[in-house]
Specification:
alpha+beta, D-Maltodextrin-Binding Protein, domain 2, 3-stranded antiparallel sheet, 4 helices, 3 strands, globular
């Protein structure tokens, strides 16, 4: 997620993540202008255990691809 925030990669997704895997990265990505959401729309990122994270340019198509393959 730090690489997403730094612009080194365009997106990241993960499943079965723990709170400590997500908490700091979530803040870093959002502060850098990126977006984070659960793989299932409407879930709680900190409790769900799944995450999609991407920059503003690829977020929508990236989410579509990841959610299609679930």
């Amino acid at each position: 997620m730090a690489y997403v925030a730094a612009g080194r990669v365009d997106g990241f997704w993960g499943r079965r993540l723990k709170l400590w895997d997500v908490a700091a990265g979530l803040i870093i990505v959002k502060e850098a202008g990126g977006f984070c959401e659960t793989i299932q729309p409407g879930g709680d990122v900190l409790q769900d255990g799944t995450l999609i994270s991407a920059n503003d340019q690829v977020y929508a198509p990236f989410c579509k691809i990841i959610r299609k393959g679930k």
